Amino acid sequence: MDKLWLDPVMIDRARQAAKEIAARVDHYISSRTTVAVERTVLRLLGIDGTNAESVPLPNVVVDHLLANGCLETGAAYWVINAMIVRQCTAQEIAEQVAEGKLDLTRLSQVSPFEIRKKGKELACAALDKIKQNRYTRDRLIQKTGTGKKPYLYVIVATGDIYEDVIQARSAVRQGADIIAVIRSTGQSLLDYVPYGLTREGFGGTFATRENFRMMRKALDEAGREAGRYIRLCNYCSGLCMPEIAAMGALERLDVMLNDALYGILFRDINMQRTLIDQAFSRMINSYAGIMINTGEDNYLTTADAEEAAHTVLASQFINEQLAFLSGLSQKQMGLGHAFEINPDLEDGLLWEIAQARMVRQIFPEAPLKYMPPTKHMTGNIFKGHVQNALFNMVGVMTNQEVQLLGMMTEAMHTPYIHDRQLAIENAAYVFHNARHLGEEILFRPGGRIEKRAQHVLKKAAEMLEEVRQMGLFKALEKGMFADVKRSFTGGKGLRGVLEKGSGYFNPVEEELRLRLGLVPREGADGS
Fold this sequence. Notes:
The chain is α/β, with parallel strands linked by helices. Helices cover 53% and strands 7% of the residues. The chain has a domain at 32-144 and 495-527: Orthogonal Bundle (Helicase, Ruva Protein, domain 3).
């Protein structure tokens, strides 16, 4: 029995408006691709490594096609044609392009039928590897089990992958269930993925395939010692969103930060670029069985949590509907929200409970990601520890599934190992002692908490209906989310957006749509 009475008609209104908003976005992006999408396809066809100047080979090939005005047909078309003509692998073709020995656009062309047949074969091989990783994860979880929910989500962020491994192992021994490797500041604005193991990063560690592989191996070993499966999280966002999704899927990551609007609002990445990239990246995450995390919690760092709570809920509805269009099940949608109401506000804790419980009821199958207080942490570590304890109590009481642990030293420095240990002890104590508190609580009908939830839901539904009228692009330009205004033609990465040309071919997306049961895209040539 639901704890709060929420008007089902109002929920349906909000969800229907979000569905129409998402459908309009999907219609717009369906005729467009990006350089990141094309690089992702090449990675899944087997291209990796760098040229003599350390430029990633997927970038080299895509830039070559872009310079020749041929990328609109899809990078896969030209590479597969060359593979057939030259009887080479995709990697060998890329190396020849990098050495200046091959112009993909000047080769004789085989029939489209041959290219499509070879493309399907290559796409199936790549997706079968991802499928095997999903099977391995399921087998390990069945064998060793996992921690109790809410999962303890802990951050490592040294900048050095070797040091990250040390801190991650320590966190697992202390009780962590999910290790998130924070990405180096600024990586989301790089239009390429760094290569290899990295030991330098500011505020975090570079997301690279080798770093993923090394941390996955370390967490598997730590999980065997701890007797439970440890999930690995990284950041699938920014200008290389789908590429990082592909690398994560190939290296068996379990959780990915993968929001539809975060890059637009908080990194000023062009909205067209982000929305195209998020659609393809989420298809990959869906097929890989990866749980995505959305970033609505960030709205409350730029907007007031009391006044703007409805924008968080509205964005969650939109993220849900866009995720459905990419084949994600609700059980993979770690929709984000946060404990960010000013602690000096009278009854602020009641409003936090209202928001957390309301979200839990509206998205009953979603593994919600609950974020700790950050905006109103002052440097007073004793008060901060209390704030985190209240956050943990609300989390377990309202059945959140992923609890990102708050650090009492928030706003002071990157957490030390002992800071993290105290955070884990705080959460473990509260979760154990209040494990079934939520089952014992009945909220007073018409009381403060219920009225607050109803108020937020109503405002979210009204906002979504307003966004439906103007479209998501206009709403972003008006600053309706997070009090941040963005331009349709502004921001970073717009030059990497292309209209699909006649005969456009993306064998990976075609195979993903088939396997995920999604409606096939109609190509510009009617295919």
